[in-house]
Prior knowledge:
A: CATH 2.40.50; 5-stranded antiparallel beta sheet; elongated; B: 395 residues; Peroxisomal Thiolase, Chain A, domain 1
Amino acid sequence: MASAPSPEVLRAPLVLEFPFTRSLGPVQSAFLTGLRERTVLGVKTEDGRTLVPPVEYDPVSAEEIRDLVEVGAAGTVTTWAWNHEPRRGQPLDTPFAWVLVKLDGADTSLLHALDVPGPDAVRTGMRVRIRWAAERIGAITDIACFEADDGPAGGGARPHSGEFGDPVTGIVALARLDYTYAPGRAQTAYIKALSEQKTVGERCPSCRKVYVPPRGACPTCGVATAERVEVGPRGTVTTYCIVNIKAKNLDIEVPYVYAHIALDGADLALHARIAGIPYDQVRMGLRVEPVWTEGARFPDHYRPTGEPDADYDTYKELV
Amino acid sequence: MSGVRSGTGKEPVAVVGIGQTRHVAARRDVSIAGLVREAAQRALEDAELRWADVDAVVIGKAPDFFEGVMMPELYLADALGAVGKPMLRVHTAGSVGGSTALVAANLVAGRVHGTVLTLAFEKQSESNAMWGLSLPIPFQQPLLAGAGGFFAPHVRAYMRRTGAPDTVGSLVAYKDRRNALKNPYAHLHEQDITLEKVQASPMLWDPIRYSETCPSSDGACAMVLTDRAGARRSPRPPAWMHGGAMRSEPTLFAGKDFVSPQAGKDCAADVYRQAGITDPRRDIDAVEMYVPFSWYEPMWLENLGFAAEGEGWKLTESGVTELDGDLPVNMSGGVLSTNPIGASGMIRFAEAALQVRGQAGEHQIDGARRALGHAYGGGSQFFSMWLVGAEPPTT
C-alpha cells in the first residue's frame, strides 16, 4: 500500500546495533556449556518428554524443571526450507537448508542449518549429524551446522548432571536492525530551509500555533499543517540546565548549558546549547541568536544577542 | 460515595497476592525468565494459589530495545504458567507497570476473568537504557543531555514558578533513601546516608544532583488480582481497588505544561471521582508516586491535587511527606531507591496495596486505609494511577 517515495523527501540508512548481555540462568548455562564440550543437553518434562533445546519451566504444568539429559549428536530432519541467499550473520555463507532436527532421544526439534549441495539433497526424514565448530565458546554457534549422516537412528536420552568445569554463565548477543529512515515532507522542508540558515515552522490552521520543527500535523487539533512560517532567528531562553557529565559520542566540553529556546514567532521551544557566555551566567529570559559553522546542518549553538532579558510574563506560557 | 457503583455493573477488584524480587544492580544468576518467575511465584504464595488458579496473565515492560529481546512475553509464557491461557503485553514507557496492572484489573472488573496474574519487569543490567532512549536519527541533531538533561530544565521551571528554595530536592532524596533502609526489597540501602552527603553529591544536570537521581536496577513485581469470590478465599486481607485511570498526551505540543501536565491532572481527577475522594490531602493516607528525580515529589504533589499550585514544596519542606508525616510519600523508598524501569510503576501500585493490607513491614503507615499508587512515563506523557482501600468499595 505504500506509495513511491517522493524524490524531494530525504532518506538515509539508519543502523541500530548494540551488544546486549544475557545472564543464562542454570538451564541455558548447562546447555551452552555442554555445546562447548560437544554434549547436547535436553530437559525432562513432568510428563516424561525430552525438550531440546531445554527450557526452565514446564510448558504443561508450569513447574520448574531441572532434570537434564544428554541426547545424541545425530538426528532426523522433521521439516525444512531452502535458503537460497544467506544473509549476514547466518550460519553458512553458501545456500543451505534451514532444518528442524529431532536429535536422537529428544521429543522436540532444534532449528539449525544443514550444509547440502542443493534442495534436491534434502528431505524430511533424512538422517543428519552435528558438525561441531573448530573453536567452541559456549554458544549455539558451537554447532557450526548439520550435515548428512548415513548412520542408523538410535539412542535414548541419558541422565546428565549438567555440571561442567568453568561453566558459561552469560553471553553477548549482538542485535542489529537496518532501516531506511525518511523524515517526511514537513521535516524535509525544515531541514532544507536550515541549509539556507532559516528556521521555518508550520502554522496549525485551527489553533494558529506555530510548530518548530514542524511535524506536518498539529498534535493538539489533529489536523494537517501546511502554512510555512519563518521564525527567529532570535529567541528567548525559557529554561535550561547545566550539563556536567560528558556524553558519549558528543564532542562538547563540560560544563555546558542545554537550553530550551523559544524562537521569536514559535509557539514551543526547541532545544539547543548556549555558548559565548560563562555557563553560570545563563538565565531564563536571556535573548539569544544562532551561531552557524560552515557546512553544518544545524546551528552549532546559540549566543546572547546583548538585548535586555525578556520579561517572564512574555514567555512563561512557553516554559 | 464509592467508585464502583452498582449501576456500572463492574466487579470489584481485589489484590490478594503481591510479590517482588530483591531489586539489585545486576541479577547475573537468573535469566529474564528466572527473574519474572521469582516475583510471580512470590505473588502466588502470598495469595496461596497455584498456577492453575490463574485465568490470564498481563505482563508489561519498557521498550524491547532495553534488553534487545523482541516481544519477550512470547518466551516468558512458560515461566508465567500462561500456556493455554490468554497473555497480554502492555507498553506505555515508564508508566507501564501501572498501566499493566490497570489492564489486568479491567479484565477482572469486566468479568472477563476471575483471577489475573499481572507482572512487570526490567533487567537493566542486560541492557543500555540510555542507548535505547536516544537512538541517533538521521538529519537530527544528537540529543544533547540524556534523560536527566531532559527533565532538569523542567525542574528549573518549577523552581522559578514556585519560588521553591533549592534545598527541597535534597530533602526528598534524603527521605526516600532513609525509607528504603526499612524496605528489604529496595535496591539502594545507603546505611550511612546524611542530608549533607546528598547536598555534597556532584551536580550532574544542574539543578539535579547525583544523589537526586534514580539507580538502574534488575527487578520484577507481580500481583494477583481477583474478583469478590476470589477475595473471600484470600488467606490475607485484600486491597480493594476504588479507582483506576490512565491518560496520555503528546510528548511536545504548543501549550504543554511539563511542570504540571494536564493529562496527570485529568487522570487523578478521574481516579478521585471513581473513589469518591473530594479532598485528596485529607482522604488519602499514603501516596506512592513515581519520582525518578527528587524534585518530582513537590511537582506531583501539586499535579495530583495534594497541594495548591506553587505549594507542593512546602509539604516536602515541612516534613508532611516523611514516613511519620501526615501524608507519607514513597514509603518504599520510591523510584529514587529502586528503578527496574518497566517494573517501577507496578512497584508503586503494589506498595499502595501493601499499605492498605497492613503488610508493608517496617515501612508500614499505621492505620493506612486508602493509598494512591502513581506512575508516569515517556516525556511526561503517559499517566496511570490507582487508589486502593482496606475496605471493599460500597455498592
